[in-house]
Automatic annotation (TrEMBL):
<keyword id="KW-0325">Glycoprotein</keyword>
<dbReference type="InterPro" id="IPR001611">
    <property type="entry name" value="Leu-rich_rpt"/>
</dbReference>
<keyword id="KW-0675">Receptor</keyword>
<feature type="transmembrane region" description="Helical">
    <location>
        <begin position="295"/>
        <end position="320"/>
    </location>
</feature>
<keyword id="KW-1133">Transmembrane helix</keyword>
<keyword id="KW-0812">Transmembrane</keyword>
<keyword id="KW-0433">Leucine-rich repeat</keyword>
<dbReference type="Pfam" id="PF00560">
    <property type="entry name" value="LRR_1"/>
</dbReference>
<protein>
    <recommendedName>
        <fullName>Leucine-rich repeat-containing N-terminal plant-type domain-containing protein</fullName>
    </recommendedName>
</protein>
<keyword id="KW-0677">Repeat</keyword>
<dbReference type="InterPro" id="IPR032675">
    <property type="entry name" value="LRR_dom_sf"/>
</dbReference>
<keyword id="KW-1003">Cell membrane</keyword>
<comment type="similarity">
    <text>Belongs to the RLP family.</text>
</comment>
<keyword id="KW-0472">Membrane</keyword>
Length: 335
């Protein structure tokens, strides 16, 4: 095991013994292409070259390690070009190529990585999700939660579960396979080019706590099904093309209005914009309430009228009877 991380080492890159199984040179000042000498490390299991100045493409030799290479961290460099199919070892557990300049499609060979627990491609120029299944990408170390960014060091992924593919150029509809991740806690797909409607099947991820779909090209309505996500504490749908009334569920209504801004067709609380026909509907409800009040008043008046008439008749009968007796006494006295 060889760890030379967190120094100020520069080129030339060191010569490495072929027996190395763990090599970390992160947080240094190495530049240029990733040295081909790494491809000759027959037993390499973990390679961490993050936070340097490496440029050029990702070496195409990593598949030579077969199932041995489990960790490949190349984040925070200046790597460019396509993500080669040949760069994927089927034994990968953790793959981080975030904050580079990679473009094109994610390699379809990722489907064969059945042990993959962590995938981070944030802040690149990736364009599509073609051929990629999310059923394996359920755990992560870097995540965006409740509006703030957190970084967890190490390679133990037993606590946090997230997908963060923000700030790329992914396009097309949100993949249906993402709903298979029942234990997902954080989903961040912001700042891409996703189109279509927000899929109602996101409600299948019942443990979801943070959902960020902002800055895409999503259209249609916010699904009512999202009201079922009892743990969803933070969400962001801003800067899309959404329309219609915002669902009135407690979790959604508790959000700040900033989570819904810059959607010209969205209306209703917590936005100040009232929905089309909402005032008319309110007026109709007020009118119905007034009519119901008048009917109720009539019933009350009628209910009060009947006993009143009855009491009047009784009192009149008593008075008439009393008068008749009084007149009889007068006539008897005169006689």
């Amino acid at each position: 095991m060889l760890d030379i991380s967190s120094n100020t080492f520069k080129n030339p890159f060191p010569l490495l013994p072929k027996s190395v199984i763990y090599f970390s040179a992160s947080d240094n000042q190495f530049s240029g292409e990733i040295p081909k000498i790494i491809c000759e490390l027959d037993s390499l299991g973990k390679l961490i070259l993050s936070n340097n100045n490496f440029s050029g493409s990702i070496p195409r030799c990593f598949e030579n390690f077969n199932t041995k290479l489990t960790v490949l961290h190349l984040q925070n460099n200046s790597l460019s070009g396509n993500f080669p199919e040949e760069s994927v070892s089927v034994g990968l557990v953790s793959l981080d190529v975030s904050h580079n300049q990679l473009s094109g499609e994610l390699p379809k060979s990722l489907i064969n990585c059945t042990y993959l627990q962590f995938l981070n491609v944030e802040d690149n120029k990736q364009q599509r999700f073609i051929g990629v299944s999310f059923s394996n990408y359920s755990k992560s170390v870097v995540l965006t939660n409740t509006g703030s960014k957190m970084e967890l060091l190490g390679i133990s992924f037993n606590i946090y579960k997230t997908i963060d593919v923000s700030e790329n150029r992914f396009e097309g509809e949100i993949p249906k396979s993402i709903s298979l991740l029942k234990e997902l806690i954080v989903l961040n797909m912001s700042s891409n080019a996703f189109v279509g409607h927000i899929p109602p099947y996101l409600s299948n991820m019942t443990n979801l706590q943070s959902l960020d779909l902002s800055r895409n090209r999503l259209s249609g309505k916010i699904p009512l099904e999202l009201e079922k996500l009892a743990f969803l504490a933070w969400m962001n749908f801003s800067y899309n093309m959404l329309e219609g009334p915002i669902p009135q569920g407690t979790q959604i209504q508790s959000q700040n209005s900033s989570s819904f801004v810059h959607n010209l067709g969205l209306c209703g609380a917590p936005l100040q914009k009232t929905c089309s026909g909402e005032e008319e509907e309110t007026r109709k409800e007020d009118q119905e309430e007034e009519e119901n009040y008048q009917v109720l008043s009539g019933i009350v008046a009628a209910t009060a009228y009947v006993p009143g008439v009855f009491c009047g008749l009784v009192i009149g009968h008593i008075l008439i009877s009393y008068r008749q007796d009084w007149f009889k006494k007068i006539f008897k006295c005169i006689a």
